[in-house]
Design the sequence.
């Protein structure tokens, strides 16, 4: 079922500049060439009955309900499959058409259970509506003949039911799964009366290939496929447009509400990032927002061995402020800091960094982007001049060759993956560079032209080898380079990459990728009209992350693949607001808009606006804070919406650093791993409980809108204001729009952003200023932001993390579709039906050598620590490499990861850890200690003194 | 802070610049990077380490850190 507030135009919008004029029932209407008759009529306010057509999908023409008469045309063409022609005269209503439509409806209804009053779809069923519209009053055929009314319901999916008795075989679900999602899980089996919808090989939805994106549910015109939440709660009464709080795709949604209860989330057809599509997380996994584990009262305690005590907001805030002040007076102004969250809004993030700089009086602020995309910021700023991706998502529809490096879009950025797949099905070439056989390599109707299955940690050697081929086979665009880039830097780079030691033949011993594959991939990308690169954490989370980002930018500049639609360098951001948290000045060395704290004129502007003196020297990064804590010079921290104890590498080291601090203030919706080490807990609010904005991977600022009051009484930004006020630095905003106005005043790339404009345009891609009042879908069109693009040298420096006889395998990490990051949200939803523990993938050869079989517990030991996980034996990974996800704290995936990091940004090297694995029967020592500590903390939470306000 | 950690960080920066054909440019690159991204106590500590001999620092990093020392002295 579509959103209760959607209007369905019958067929998708057509973008054509040529206009065609037609006459429909006497009304003249002008539409783009190629538009269907049904869409033109709907635009003119004339609703033609329909069942198999919907504007999410290409027309199909099966139900024959949308018949019309067209002057000069024989018979009664279907208006959904007939495009308008200049001067067409169309009649949509007359006696003959009415009879034909009634006959069609009569057949449908004769095989449909007439339980409308108690049906989930009641009030929003298209079949019911159509019966009314065509004036069906009686049905001549009874239920005595063959019918489908006894078919069994499939309730296997945790979020939606499939009730085949109600199916009208319109095939909208099948087409949605193919066209919109690209999974091809559904088919119409058999023919005629026997025909029915079938998931995979006639399996239940849960056992089939279905990934639970919900596109079919949204497309279904009846209650056949419908959300369980509607069954439970009934239909919603109104809807509010907001933005998904999970991944960096940033899908726009209509939250459908009843009172203060969200009935369902329906992807917004007008959403610029997702065009009405979503994945299982955004559409279905919002149950965590009302989960019983939510902590809604502030709490304090003296030591992490004490039970918690619930207190009033005033007491909690004053306690935190007095502790921070005490620490600063005893240990100096630089002994405290803060961490902003990539899950919170831009406005909240901006306030936390402002609090650190203005109220704490230092620059010790960092964000979780440190551990994911900080090399993107560094590498792209150095080469192109702006720390952000260059394109909008829609750009991919004009790409001829798509190169995916170290990203797993179908798991981590599913909605964009669907769009990419659509383009690949249309014929775009595909190169995948990844140690693992990710889903994009081979899926229905998709086969990568090249899969360069490199050894983890050798990205830089490979990108330079690709550059070597592009340069030595003269696939470069020297004219473009001459005009757009620093010529000297290019010549230096050219001389560097041309060296024989960088050839595919010379680097095969490092990368493990056969030279002919490297040559083939380089020629495919280098000779494409439009070549686009998309990359993820498999690029950044390495000790050479920044070098690799520069290598990617070099390659794109050399082949003129920057500055127009269809090309570009595009980081796929992990969390919903990673881009935003970086833009908002969360890094210790820069203010909002990526301007260094040492820049006197920028600092003066902030000092003037904030009425306070600001520091000109960079502060501590997250890993530096840990080191400083261990040496006793860093004692207090304010952490908003992050779980560093689970997400950061080398867990034992992080835990020791946290234990050494005197005041840890955690603001979150749940008690998380970090909160177990906290002294003050400030309850957080979910994305449904506050106003603000998120910025996605395409620099798109989208509105987040409050649909229910915050459970704890305050939105996160209000709590930061209270803390700042208690510290003596006044923050008196009454609405997040005022914070955005301040951001706009102080940030050249945001000058034109206002809430009013966001409401009008739906979303805005920064830069948005006088030069680009409606935002900037494609960057670097005329010139690069830094002026001339700069080529940088990319020497391959191997990781410190080396395999040897003791640690012969490389462990690398990734994500899975149904879970999100540290999992604190998705683990508290029915998404655990797909993934309820982290599993280690091991190649059959390595497994056999160690006597490991699928399902065995295996110990994974590295130089940092040991953990135990269950194994699955698969050739998705290559020999010598093991792979796991990191969504469950008890897995301790980060107990084994090392302390090594990217040379330029300290982004941890999550993707390469030398390990040994062996079959075991018991959990690791760390896991036992973790379990004991967690139980103790649970007990301390359970024993908390409560207050009733 | 743990000096081994800082030394590894400094040498990692140095390693990136090894392919830079002009030594002077490489040293300035290292210096500039440390100045732009390292917090004061880290800068000070690596300078102290160099004063004590700085054995584990690579030659170019040593040179960069000695220039860093001069700039810290000047800043005072
Ligand atoms: S399940 Fe729904 S969408 Fe699919 S064929 Fe049946 S009625 Fe149509
Ligand atoms: S939920 Fe998505 S993947 Fe599953 S059958 Fe429906 S459209 Fe296909
Ligand atoms: S998790 Fe990502 S892809 Fe899924 S709905 Fe949310 S924003 Fe869209
Ligand atoms: S809506 Fe046109 S044929 Fe079904």
Sequence:
């Amino acid at each position: 079922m579509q959103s209760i507030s959607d209007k369905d135009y019958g067929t998708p919008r057509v973008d054509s500049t040529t206009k065609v004029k037609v006459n429909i029932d006497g009304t003249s209407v002008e539409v783009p060439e190629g538009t269907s008759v049904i869409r033109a009529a709907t635009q003119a306010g004339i609703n033609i009955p329909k069942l198999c057509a919907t504007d999410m999908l290409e027309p199909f023409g099966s139900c024959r309900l949308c018949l019309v008469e067209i002057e000069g045309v024989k018979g009664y063409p279907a208006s959904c499959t007939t495009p308008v022609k200049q001067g067409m005269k169309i009649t949509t209503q007359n006696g003959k058409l009415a009879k034909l439509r009634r006959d069609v409806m009569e057949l449908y209804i004769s095989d449909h259970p007439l339980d409308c009053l108690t049906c989930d779809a009641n009030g929003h069923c298209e079949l019911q509506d159509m019966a009314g519209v065509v004036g069906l009053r009686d049905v001549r055929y009874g239920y005595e003949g063959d019918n489908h009314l006894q078919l069994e319901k499939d309730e296997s999916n945790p979020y939606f039911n499939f009730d085949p008795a109600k199916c009208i075989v319109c095939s909208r679900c099948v087409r949605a799964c193919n066209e919109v999602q690209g999974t091809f899980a559904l088919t119409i089996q058999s023919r005629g009366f026997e025909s029915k919808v079938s998931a995979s090989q006639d399996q239940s939805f849960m056992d089939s290939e279905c990934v639970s994106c919900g596109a079919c549910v949204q497309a279904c015109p009846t209650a056949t496929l419908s959300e369980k939440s509607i069954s439970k709660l009934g239909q919603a009464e109104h809807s509010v447009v907001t933005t998904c709080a999970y991944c960096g795709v940033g899908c726009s949604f209509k939250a459908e509400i009843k009172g203060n209860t969200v009935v369902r989330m329906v992807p917004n057809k007008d959403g610029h990032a997702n065009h009405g599509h979503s994945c299982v997380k955004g559409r279905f996994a919002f149950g965590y927002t009302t989960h019983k584990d939510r902590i809604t009262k502030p709490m304090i305690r003296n030591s992490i061995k004490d039970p918690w005590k619930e207190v009033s907001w005033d007491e909690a805030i004053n306690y935190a402020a007095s502790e921070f002040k005490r620490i600063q007076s005893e240990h100096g102004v630089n002994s405290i800091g803060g961490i902003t969250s990539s899950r919170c809004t831009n406005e909240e993030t901006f306030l936390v960094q402002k609090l650190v700089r203005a109220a704490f009086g230092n620059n010790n602020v960092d964000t979780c982007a440190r551990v994911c995309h900080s090399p993107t910021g560094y590498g792209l700023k150095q080469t192109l001049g702006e720390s952000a991706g260059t394109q909008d998502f829609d750009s991919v529809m004009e790409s001829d060759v798509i190169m995916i490096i170290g990203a797993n879009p179908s798991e981590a950025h599913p909605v964009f993956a669907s769009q990419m797949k659509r383009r690949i099905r249309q014929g775009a070439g595909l190169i995948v560079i990844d140690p693992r056989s990710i889903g994009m390599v081979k899926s229905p109707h998709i086969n990568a032209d090249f899969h360069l299955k490199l050894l983890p940690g050798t990205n830089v050697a490979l990108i330079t080898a690709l550059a070597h081929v592009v340069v030595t086979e003269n696939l470069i665009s020297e004219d473009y380079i001459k005009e757009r880039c620093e010529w000297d830097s290019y010549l230096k780079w050219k001389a560097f990459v041309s060296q024989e030691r960088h050839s595919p033949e010379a680097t095969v011993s490092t990368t493990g990728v056969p030279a002919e594959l490297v040559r083939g991939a380089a020629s495919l990308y280098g000779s494409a009209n439009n070549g686009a690169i998309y990359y993820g954490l498999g690029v950044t989370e390495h000790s050479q992350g920044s070098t690799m980002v520069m290598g990617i930018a070099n390659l794109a500049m050399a082949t003129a693949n920057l500055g127009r639609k269809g090309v570009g360098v595009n980081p796929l951001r992990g969390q919903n607001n990673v881009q935003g948290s970086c833009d908002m000045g969360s890094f210790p060395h820069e203010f909002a808009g990526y301007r260094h704290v040492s820049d006197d004129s920028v600092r003066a502007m902030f000092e003037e606006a904030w009425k306070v003196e600001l520091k000109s020297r960079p502060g501590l990064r997250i890993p530096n804070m840990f080191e400083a804590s261990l040496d006793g010079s860093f004692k207090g921290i304010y952490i908003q919406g992050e779980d560093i104890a689970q997400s950061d590498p080398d867990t034992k080291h992080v835990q020791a650093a946290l234990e050494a601090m005197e005041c840890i203030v955690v603001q979150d919706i749940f008690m998380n791993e970090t909160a177990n080490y906290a002294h003050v807990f400030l309850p957080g609010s979910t994305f449904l409980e506050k106003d603000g904005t998120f910025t996605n991977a395409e620099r798109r600022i989208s509105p987040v809108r409050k649909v229910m009051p915050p459970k704890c009484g305050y939105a996160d930004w209000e709590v930061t204001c209270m803390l700042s006020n208690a510290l003596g630095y006044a923050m008196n905003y009454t609405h997040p729009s005022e914070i955005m106005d301040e951001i706009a005043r102080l940030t050249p790339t945001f000058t034109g952003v206002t809430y009013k404009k966001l409401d009008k345009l739906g979303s805005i891609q920064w830069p948005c200023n006088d030069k680009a009042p409606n935002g900037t879908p494609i960057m670097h069109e005329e010139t690069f932001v830094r002026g001339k693009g700069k080529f940088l040298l990319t020497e391959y420096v191997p990781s410190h993390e080396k395999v040897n006889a003791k640690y012969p395998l490389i462990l690398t990490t990734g994500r899975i579709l149904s879970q999100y990051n540290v999992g604190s949200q998705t683990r508290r939803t029915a998404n655990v039906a797909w993934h309820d523990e982290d599993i280690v993938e091991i190649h059959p050869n390595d497994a056999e050598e160690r006597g490991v079989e699928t399902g065995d517990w295996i110990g994974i030991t590295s130089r940092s620590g040991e953990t135990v996980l269950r194994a699955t034996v698969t050739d998705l990974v290559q020999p010598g490499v093991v792979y796991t996800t990191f969504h469950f704290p008890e897995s301790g995936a980060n107990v084994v990861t090392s302390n090594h990091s990217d040379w330029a940004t300290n982004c941890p090297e999550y993707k390469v850890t030398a390990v040994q694995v062996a079959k075991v029967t018991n959990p690791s020592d760390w896991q036992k200690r973790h379990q004991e500590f967690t139980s103790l903390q649970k007990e301390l939470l359970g024993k908390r003194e409560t207050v009733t306000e | 802070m743990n000096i081994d950690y800082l030394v590894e960080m400094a040498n990692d920066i140095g390693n990136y610049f090894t392919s830079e054909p002009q030594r002077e440019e490489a040293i300035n690159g290292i210096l500039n990077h440390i100045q732009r991204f390292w917090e004061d106590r880290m800068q000070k500590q690596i300078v102290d380490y160099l004063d004590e001999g700085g054995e584990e620092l690579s030659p170019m990093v040593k040179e960069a850190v000695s220039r860093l020392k001069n700039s810290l002295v000047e800043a005072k």
Summary: Residues 59-75 of chain B form the longest helix (17 residues).
